[in-house]
Design brief:
Elements: H1 9-16, H2 21-45, H3 59-78, H4 87-93, H5 98-107, E1 111-114, E2 117-120, E3 130-138, E4 144-152, H6 154-165
Helix pairs in contact: 1-2, 4-5
C-alpha cells in the first residue's frame, strides 16, 4: 500500500520545489499573492450593484495628482528662467508700455512676432540675453496647450535698457 500524506497547499509547494530554497520561496510568495488578489476581486464582485466599487483613489485625487505632476514639470522646465524679467516687467522699469517696448525690440531685431507670440530672434539666441519660460493653458475643449516666451536675463535687461536710452 502507498502511504498517503495530508499536506496543506503551502506544504505541498515546499515538497514540489524540492530542496531549492530560492525557487521554493518565490513560488510560495507568488502563490500567496495570487490568492490575495483573487480574494479582493471576489469581494469586489460580490458587492451589491447599488454600492459603488471601492476605489483606492477617487477621480478628484487622480486629477489633483495630475495637476501636481504638471506643476512640477513646468517648474523644472522654467528653472533656468528664475530671476529673469518678463517683457512687461522690463517695460514698467523703462517707464514704457508693453506695446512700445515690443515694437522697439522687433525693430532692433531682438524679437520676432510669429502667430500670436513674440520669440527671441535667432540672431540673438545663445548670447545669454534671454531664457525661455513655458506657459501652459487649457482650451475651451479642455485640451492642454503650451507656449514659450522669452524672459530677460540681467545681460538682456542691460542691453534693452541701453536701447531704450538711445
Amino acid at each position: 500500500m502507498i502511504p498517503v500524506f495530508s499536506l496543506t497547499k503551502t506544504e505541498s509547494l515546499f515538497v514540489a520545489t524540492k530542496f531549492n530554497d530560492e525557487a521554493r520561496a518565490r513560488l510560495v510568495l507568488r502563490w500567496e499573492q495570487l490568492e490575495f488578489e483573487q480574494s479582493i476581486n471576489e469581494h469586489l464582485s460580490h458587492q451589491p450593484p447599488s454600492q459603488p466599487r471601492l476605489l483606492l483613489e477617487t477621480e478628484h485625487d487622480i486629477l489633483q495628482r495630475s495637476d501636481e505632476i504638471r506643476q512640477e514639470q513646468i517648474a523644472t522646465q522654467n528653472a533656468p528662467a528664475d530671476g529673469c524679467l518678463t517683457t512687461t516687467e522690463l517695460a514698467e522699469l523703462a517707464d514704457m508700455t508693453f506695446g512700445k517696448l515690443t515694437k522697439l525690440l522687433v525693430k532692433e531685431g531682438l524679437l520676432i512676432f510669429r502667430g500670436r507670440h513674440y520669440y527671441l530672434s535667432e540672431n540673438y539666441s545663445g548670447m545669454g540675453l534671454a531664457q525661455e519660460r513655458v506657459y501652459q493653458y487649457y482650451t475651451l475643449k479642455g485640451e492642454v496647450r503650451k507656449t514659450t516666451y522669452p524672459v530677460w536675463t540681467r545681460l538682456g535687461c542691460q542691453k534693452i535698457l541701453e536701447l531704450v536710452a538711445k
